[in-house]
Amino acid sequence: MDWSAILNEYAPALTEAQVADEVARLKEAAVRNHRREVYELCLAAVDLTTLTCNDSVESVTEFARRAVDFYVKYPELRNVASICVYPSFVETVGLAIDGTPMRITSVAGGFPASQTFLEVKMLEVAMAIENGADEVDIVMNVGKVLEGRYAEAAAEVETIREEMGEDTVLKVILETGALKSPELIRAASLLSMHAGTDFIKTSTGKIDVAATPEAAVVMCQAIKDYYAKTGRRVGFKAAGGVRTPEDAALYYTIVEDLLGEEWLTTDLFRIGASSAANNLLSGIVGHSVKFF
């Protein structure tokens, strides 16, 4: 595939000044969404995440079982969309959530740096799926994008997409805090979508700059333009640094405004979070809760 030609089919990225203006407008608009109904949808869109060096079978089992207990404790509310873990804990989560509608998300493909051999990435993705992952989050090779080696970065995503098949949801993490500029974030977004991803995701949460509304605006504009050209809807996931109900409502508003209500479903909108789940639940019930 001629990746450079694909990028040339699209208008240039917004300037930093234009992005800043959009973010300012959307922050004002987001106030209307500081309400229970929005918080409930945002909670249902959460990929409840534990990705620490001290994860263990015991801790991940307890983490997942708490999410299962949510169905009993809060039967009137929608539970989180998935549990997100390292590949070696996919089977652990599967045993803990068996019989529930929750999905299993696995980071894979050399997460979080993507700095390993393509064959290793493919094997890790395949093993995560074999162990029961419904969704896989991989990182686009940031170094290659920064060097302008777009074809290599996109071809890796395309190869993994083809190898994993269509039954598993693929999310591509752009690590927008490392890409920084609207031009690079837009290019990575468009390349990932043409390579076959189902979602584009802001961040790993493992570097200093994680999800930002500025990156979200650029990504959602790219999703909108890609949909206009291809007719295929691609989802958006904000991850890293989303902590408060107001944070979540801002990303909800960005999606609502730039992409429309059709995107406000868990099939097309996700939030990668840990503490945000408790904070959203607190916003919903009206008092501080630490459940998850």
Written overview of the protein:
The protein has 13 helices and 8 strands. 51% of the residues lie in helices and 12% in strands. The chain has helices at 3-8, 16-29, 36-44, 57-73, 90-97, 118-130, 142-146, 150-164, 176-179, 182-194, 213-230, 245-259, 275-285, and strands at 46-49, 82-85, 103-107, 135-139, 169-173, 199-201, 235-239, 269-273. It has 292 residues and is of the alpha/beta class. The protein has a single domain (3-285), classed as TIM Barrel (Alpha-Beta Barrel). The chain has an 8-stranded parallel beta barrel, surrounded by 8 helices.
CATH topology name, in short, is: TIM Barrel
Return the average pLDDT rounded to an integer. Answer: 97
Give the class-level CATH name: Alpha Beta
Shape, please?
globular
Task: Offer a few descriptive terms.
alpha/beta; 292 residues; TIM Barrel
Fold topology:
Layout: H1 3-8, H2 16-29, H3 36-44, E1 46-49, H4 57-73, E2 82-85, H5 90-97, E3 103-107, H6 118-130, E4 135-139, H7 142-146, H8 150-164, E5 169-173, H9 176-179, H10 182-194, E6 199-201, H11 213-230, E7 235-239, H12 245-259, E8 269-273, H13 275-285
Parallel strand pairs: 1-2, 1-8, 2-3, 3-4, 4-5, 5-6, 6-7, 7-8
Quick structural summary:
With 292 residues, this protein is α/β, with parallel strands linked by helices. The chain contains 13 helices and eight strands.
